[in-house]
Amino acid sequence: xxxxxxxxxxxxxxxxxxxxxxxxxxxxxxxxxxxxxxxxxxxxxxxxxxxxxxxxxxxxxxxxxxxxxxxxxxxxxxxxxxxxxxxxxxxxxxxxxxxxxxxxxxxxxxxxxxxxxxxxxxxxxxxxxxxxxxxxxxxxxxxxxxxxxxxxxxxxxxxxxxxxxxxxxxxxxxxxxxxxxxxxxxxxxxxxxxxxxxxxxxxxxxxxxxxxxxxxxxxxxxxxxxxxxxxxxxxxxxxxxxxxxxxxxxxxxxxxxxxxxxxxxxxxxxxxxxxxxxxxxxxxxxxxxxxxxxxxxxxxxxxxxxxxxxxxxxxxxxxxxxxxxxxx
Length: 328
Hints:
The protein contains 15 helices and five strands. The protein is α/β, with parallel strands linked by helices and 328 residues long. The longest helix has 20 residues, at 246-265.
């Protein structure tokens, strides 16, 4: 194992690899980035490399006893905190670190991983602080978080911080193509909608829920091109049934109109988010001016703002639908 399966994050990975090459592994790390970006995957890979008994190998040799035990999830020199609740309490940290006074069994190091470290209570963080201030020379603590501001200053000041950046749409696309085949329905849409986060793209590709929502939303948008006010009120139940997904639905609507603008004004379709729906988008785009399409996007954002401000949900949706219909 040598980070081969990691998409992007070159700067983080290069720095970690160099620390292994130069035998300068630190005592404490903080991996920061959006949920699903790959922080925990990198942390686990890094832990396996640290514990490998073959120090001349940059990566995990996959052959020594430490590596075999690590990949069978039974290496006593690797402890990962697993919490079912929403918070990490002082007792959880104390129980985890009880064994830190015992030297490693197979490796030169002993690695502790705390995922979602922002879930630690203040008391738990203060308990961890004692180890961060006076760590055994063989211990390595790795914390991951999507909200570094939730950690107290004294904890943040005693760890080496690594920021994970979002992947490009092309990187996400390549991941999906390599793991789900290029024939995946809506692959470009998923790659764009995942907002540079591989974990989100993977979940969307596996569930199929997003594609089902998109089909329904596309049908609604096409109906809005017909001047029948009665249909606007018949459309509302779909929004009510998917009230908890309204953010996604509004995003899909915005992407549809965005793609219409691109097809009307550009000679190629490489920038389309819904490239697999090009024919449908083009058919609708022919009947709309750029001014109307831009106005429709504004209408959707106004509805989103109203809903976030707790304006009556049904009223916000029905007004949006009527205004969208008027714009055609």
